[in-house]
Amino acid sequence: MAMGKRDRARASGIEQAIWVDWRGPAVPNVAPNVRVYLGHESCEHLLPGPQEALSLVRRLGGSQLRPLSLVTPFLTQDGLARTRRLIDALLAHWSEMEIVCNDWGLLWDLATGHAGRLALGRLLVGQSLDPRIVGMLAELGQAPAARVIHHVDGTACLLRYRAASTEAAAHFRAVSADQAEMIDFFAGFGVERCEISHLRHGLLTSGRGWRYSLHRPWIPLSVQRCHGSARGRCPCRGEEQVWSARGFPVPLIHRDNVVGYRGHFDPADDSALIGLGIDRIVEGPDS
User: Fold this and answer.
1) Could you give the CA distance from residue 189 to residue 207 in angstroms, rounded to a whole number?
2) For the whole model, what pTM was predicted?
3) SS3 for 63?
4) Which of 102, 126, 133, 188 has the most crowded CB, counting CB atoms within 10 A?
Protein backbone atom coordinates (compact mmCIF):
# COMPACT_ATOMS: atom_id res chain seq x y z
CA MET A 1 0.00 0.00 0.00
CA ALA A 2 1.37 3.43 -0.94
CA MET A 3 2.19 5.77 1.92
CA GLY A 4 0.28 9.03 2.23
CA LYS A 5 1.92 12.46 2.38
CA ARG A 6 2.09 12.54 6.18
CA ASP A 7 3.45 8.98 6.42
CA ARG A 8 6.24 9.82 3.97
CA ALA A 9 7.13 12.89 6.01
CA ARG A 10 7.45 10.84 9.19
CA ALA A 11 9.43 8.10 7.44
CA SER A 12 11.93 10.64 6.07
CA GLY A 13 12.58 12.24 9.46
CA ILE A 14 10.52 15.37 8.78
CA GLU A 15 8.16 16.20 11.63
CA GLN A 16 4.51 16.55 10.68
CA ALA A 17 2.37 19.35 12.12
CA ILE A 18 -1.16 20.59 11.48
CA TRP A 19 -2.91 23.90 12.12
CA VAL A 20 -6.10 23.58 14.17
CA ASP A 21 -8.43 26.59 14.13
CA TRP A 22 -9.73 26.92 17.68
CA ARG A 23 -12.78 28.79 16.30
CA GLY A 24 -13.94 25.81 14.25
CA PRO A 25 -17.12 23.96 15.31
CA ALA A 26 -15.55 20.51 15.01
CA VAL A 27 -12.32 19.14 16.43
CA PRO A 28 -10.27 17.19 13.85
CA ASN A 29 -8.89 13.75 14.49
CA VAL A 30 -5.14 14.32 14.99
CA ALA A 31 -2.76 11.47 15.71
CA PRO A 32 -0.95 11.80 19.06
CA ASN A 33 2.48 12.09 17.43
CA VAL A 34 1.44 14.93 15.09
CA ARG A 35 2.32 18.40 16.32
CA VAL A 36 -0.62 20.77 16.75
CA TYR A 37 -0.37 24.47 15.89
CA LEU A 38 -2.99 26.70 17.49
CA GLY A 39 -3.46 30.40 18.18
CA HIS A 40 -3.59 33.13 15.55
CA GLU A 41 -0.80 34.45 13.38
CA SER A 42 -1.95 37.99 12.67
CA CYS A 43 -4.61 39.31 15.10
CA GLU A 44 -4.27 39.46 18.88
CA HIS A 45 -8.07 39.67 19.27
CA LEU A 46 -8.45 36.27 17.60
CA LEU A 47 -6.20 34.42 20.03
CA PRO A 48 -8.06 31.96 22.27
CA GLY A 49 -8.40 32.65 25.95
CA PRO A 50 -6.62 30.31 28.40
CA GLN A 51 -9.69 28.15 29.04
CA GLU A 52 -10.57 27.96 25.33
CA ALA A 53 -7.03 26.83 24.47
CA LEU A 54 -6.90 24.26 27.29
CA SER A 55 -10.30 22.89 26.30
CA LEU A 56 -9.26 22.54 22.65
CA VAL A 57 -6.05 20.66 23.38
CA ARG A 58 -7.82 18.34 25.80
CA ARG A 59 -10.51 17.57 23.21
CA LEU A 60 -7.73 16.73 20.76
CA GLY A 61 -6.52 14.08 23.16
CA GLY A 62 -4.01 16.42 24.69
CA SER A 63 -1.73 14.42 26.94
CA GLN A 64 1.37 16.20 28.19
CA LEU A 65 3.38 14.30 25.57
CA ARG A 66 1.55 15.85 22.60
CA PRO A 67 3.84 18.19 20.60
CA LEU A 68 2.24 21.65 20.79
CA SER A 69 3.04 25.02 19.21
CA LEU A 70 1.23 28.24 20.14
CA VAL A 71 1.39 30.85 17.37
CA THR A 72 1.15 34.49 18.41
CA PRO A 73 0.71 37.66 16.27
CA PHE A 74 1.84 41.29 16.41
CA LEU A 75 0.85 42.59 19.85
CA THR A 76 -0.13 45.82 21.55
CA GLN A 77 0.92 46.38 25.15
CA ASP A 78 -2.46 45.12 26.36
CA GLY A 79 -2.25 42.19 23.97
CA LEU A 80 1.17 41.32 25.31
CA ALA A 81 -0.21 40.99 28.84
CA ARG A 82 -3.16 38.84 27.67
CA THR A 83 -0.87 36.63 25.62
CA ARG A 84 1.48 36.07 28.54
CA ARG A 85 -1.49 34.85 30.61
CA LEU A 86 -2.43 32.45 27.79
CA ILE A 87 1.16 31.19 27.51
CA ASP A 88 1.55 30.73 31.26
CA ALA A 89 -1.72 28.75 31.43
CA LEU A 90 -0.61 26.38 28.67
CA LEU A 91 2.93 26.00 29.98
CA ALA A 92 1.51 24.87 33.32
CA HIS A 93 0.21 21.77 31.49
CA TRP A 94 2.63 21.50 28.53
CA SER A 95 6.05 22.57 29.81
CA GLU A 96 7.70 21.68 26.47
CA MET A 97 5.28 23.81 24.43
CA GLU A 98 6.82 25.82 21.61
CA ILE A 99 5.86 29.48 21.21
CA VAL A 100 6.04 30.90 17.69
CA CYS A 101 6.59 34.65 18.08
CA ASN A 102 5.61 37.27 15.51
CA ASP A 103 6.22 40.15 17.91
CA TRP A 104 9.65 41.35 19.01
CA GLY A 105 8.39 42.46 22.41
CA LEU A 106 6.95 39.04 23.23
CA LEU A 107 10.08 37.31 21.95
CA TRP A 108 12.26 39.44 24.21
CA ASP A 109 9.92 38.97 27.18
CA LEU A 110 9.89 35.18 26.84
CA ALA A 111 13.58 34.83 26.01
CA THR A 112 14.76 36.85 28.99
CA GLY A 113 12.30 34.99 31.22
CA HIS A 114 13.35 31.57 29.83
CA ALA A 115 9.72 30.59 29.19
CA GLY A 116 9.06 27.76 26.75
CA ARG A 117 10.74 26.80 23.50
CA LEU A 118 10.85 29.73 21.09
CA ALA A 119 10.62 30.02 17.30
CA LEU A 120 10.70 33.01 14.98
CA GLY A 121 7.34 33.44 13.21
CA ARG A 122 6.69 33.98 9.51
CA LEU A 123 5.93 37.68 9.98
CA LEU A 124 9.42 38.32 11.37
CA VAL A 125 11.78 36.14 9.33
CA GLY A 126 11.93 38.42 6.27
CA GLN A 127 11.11 36.01 3.44
CA SER A 128 10.14 37.44 0.03
CA LEU A 129 6.57 36.32 -0.65
CA ASP A 130 5.37 38.23 -3.74
CA PRO A 131 4.30 35.58 -6.31
CA ARG A 132 5.44 37.83 -9.17
CA ILE A 133 9.09 37.43 -8.20
CA VAL A 134 9.30 33.91 -9.61
CA GLY A 135 8.63 35.30 -13.10
CA MET A 136 11.42 37.81 -12.68
CA LEU A 137 13.88 35.12 -11.58
CA ALA A 138 12.90 32.92 -14.51
CA GLU A 139 14.02 35.74 -16.83
CA LEU A 140 17.33 36.36 -15.02
CA GLY A 141 19.54 38.60 -17.14
CA GLN A 142 16.67 39.57 -19.47
CA ALA A 143 14.95 42.91 -19.08
CA PRO A 144 11.19 43.06 -19.86
CA ALA A 145 10.16 45.21 -22.78
CA ALA A 146 9.71 48.92 -22.09
CA ARG A 147 6.13 50.16 -21.73
CA VAL A 148 4.34 53.48 -21.76
CA ILE A 149 2.97 54.81 -18.47
CA HIS A 150 0.04 57.26 -18.76
CA HIS A 151 -0.39 59.87 -16.01
CA VAL A 152 -3.67 61.30 -14.75
CA ASP A 153 -2.77 64.74 -16.16
CA GLY A 154 -2.66 63.32 -19.69
CA THR A 155 1.12 63.13 -20.01
CA ALA A 156 3.03 59.91 -20.52
CA CYS A 157 6.51 58.48 -20.09
CA LEU A 158 8.40 55.42 -21.21
CA LEU A 159 9.26 52.99 -18.42
CA ARG A 160 12.44 51.00 -19.09
CA TYR A 161 13.27 47.97 -16.98
CA ARG A 162 16.64 46.72 -15.79
CA ALA A 163 17.42 43.02 -15.94
CA ALA A 164 17.47 41.20 -12.60
CA SER A 165 21.00 40.46 -11.44
CA THR A 166 22.33 37.33 -9.76
CA GLU A 167 22.69 39.46 -6.60
CA ALA A 168 18.98 40.30 -6.74
CA ALA A 169 18.14 36.61 -7.21
CA ALA A 170 20.20 35.70 -4.14
CA HIS A 171 18.42 38.41 -2.13
CA PHE A 172 14.95 37.13 -3.02
CA ARG A 173 15.87 33.51 -2.33
CA ALA A 174 17.35 34.23 1.08
CA VAL A 175 15.64 34.75 4.44
CA SER A 176 16.62 37.96 6.22
CA ALA A 177 16.91 36.17 9.56
CA ASP A 178 19.50 33.81 8.06
CA GLN A 179 22.45 36.10 8.76
CA ALA A 180 25.37 35.34 11.03
CA GLU A 181 24.67 38.23 13.41
CA MET A 182 20.98 37.34 13.82
CA ILE A 183 21.64 33.60 14.18
CA ASP A 184 24.21 34.20 16.92
CA PHE A 185 21.97 36.74 18.67
CA PHE A 186 18.93 34.47 18.76
CA ALA A 187 20.98 31.40 19.66
CA GLY A 188 21.89 33.19 22.87
CA PHE A 189 18.19 33.08 23.78
CA GLY A 190 17.73 29.48 22.64
CA VAL A 191 15.87 30.46 19.43
CA GLU A 192 16.97 28.06 16.70
CA ARG A 193 13.85 27.70 14.52
CA CYS A 194 12.32 29.85 11.76
CA GLU A 195 8.87 29.47 10.22
CA ILE A 196 8.83 29.97 6.43
CA SER A 197 6.04 30.10 3.86
CA HIS A 198 7.22 28.55 0.60
CA LEU A 199 10.05 27.51 -1.73
CA ARG A 200 8.58 29.16 -4.81
CA HIS A 201 11.68 31.29 -5.47
CA GLY A 202 14.08 28.66 -4.18
CA LEU A 203 15.63 28.90 -0.73
CA LEU A 204 19.19 30.05 -0.14
CA THR A 205 20.42 29.20 3.36
CA SER A 206 23.75 29.70 5.09
CA GLY A 207 23.63 26.27 6.73
CA ARG A 208 24.72 27.85 10.01
CA GLY A 209 22.12 26.31 12.25
CA TRP A 210 18.54 27.53 11.67
CA ARG A 211 15.95 24.78 11.55
CA TYR A 212 12.98 25.62 9.34
CA SER A 213 9.27 24.82 9.51
CA LEU A 214 7.66 24.94 6.07
CA HIS A 215 4.01 26.02 6.05
CA ARG A 216 1.58 25.14 3.27
CA PRO A 217 -0.58 26.05 1.46
CA TRP A 218 -1.41 29.48 3.00
CA ILE A 219 1.10 32.27 2.23
CA PRO A 220 0.49 35.65 3.95
CA LEU A 221 1.39 38.71 1.89
CA SER A 222 0.13 41.67 3.91
CA VAL A 223 -1.23 42.12 7.42
CA GLN A 224 -3.69 44.90 8.17
CA ARG A 225 -3.87 46.65 11.51
CA CYS A 226 -6.82 45.51 13.59
CA HIS A 227 -8.73 48.16 15.54
CA GLY A 228 -10.85 45.74 17.56
CA SER A 229 -11.22 46.61 21.22
CA ALA A 230 -12.16 43.10 22.34
CA ARG A 231 -12.06 39.62 20.85
CA GLY A 232 -15.83 39.43 20.64
CA ARG A 233 -16.05 42.59 18.54
CA CYS A 234 -12.99 42.02 16.38
CA PRO A 235 -13.61 43.31 12.83
CA CYS A 236 -11.30 40.61 11.45
CA ARG A 237 -14.05 37.99 11.62
CA GLY A 238 -15.77 37.35 8.31
CA GLU A 239 -15.91 35.28 5.16
CA GLU A 240 -13.02 34.91 2.76
CA GLN A 241 -12.94 37.30 -0.19
CA VAL A 242 -11.15 36.32 -3.39
CA TRP A 243 -9.57 39.17 -5.31
CA SER A 244 -7.84 39.35 -8.66
CA ALA A 245 -5.14 41.88 -9.44
CA ARG A 246 -3.52 42.73 -12.74
CA GLY A 247 -0.10 41.12 -13.00
CA PHE A 248 -0.64 38.67 -10.16
CA PRO A 249 -0.35 35.03 -11.32
CA VAL A 250 -2.55 33.71 -8.48
CA PRO A 251 -5.85 34.82 -6.89
CA LEU A 252 -5.43 36.96 -3.79
CA ILE A 253 -7.45 35.98 -0.72
CA HIS A 254 -8.53 38.29 2.08
CA ARG A 255 -9.37 36.57 5.35
CA ASP A 256 -9.33 37.92 8.89
CA ASN A 257 -6.80 40.78 8.64
CA VAL A 258 -4.48 39.18 6.08
CA VAL A 259 -4.19 39.26 2.30
CA GLY A 260 -2.42 36.19 0.95
CA TYR A 261 -2.63 33.30 -1.48
CA ARG A 262 -2.48 29.52 -1.57
CA GLY A 263 0.07 27.37 -3.30
CA HIS A 264 2.24 24.24 -3.01
CA PHE A 265 5.76 25.01 -4.17
CA ASP A 266 7.91 22.55 -2.22
CA PRO A 267 9.92 19.78 -3.92
CA ALA A 268 8.54 16.25 -3.90
CA ASP A 269 11.87 14.85 -2.68
CA ASP A 270 11.99 15.03 1.12
CA SER A 271 15.78 14.74 1.11
CA ALA A 272 15.89 18.10 -0.68
CA LEU A 273 13.94 19.65 2.19
CA ILE A 274 16.26 18.17 4.80
CA GLY A 275 19.25 19.47 2.86
CA LEU A 276 17.83 23.00 3.23
CA GLY A 277 17.40 22.62 6.99
CA ILE A 278 13.64 22.03 6.75
CA ASP A 279 12.70 19.39 9.33
CA ARG A 280 9.01 20.18 9.85
CA ILE A 281 6.03 20.56 7.49
CA VAL A 282 3.02 22.45 8.80
CA GLU A 283 -0.24 21.71 6.99
CA GLY A 284 -2.78 24.51 7.11
CA PRO A 285 -6.45 23.88 7.90
CA ASP A 286 -7.26 24.32 4.20
CA SER A 287 -4.67 21.82 2.89
Assistant:
1) 19
2) 0.84
3) coil
4) 102
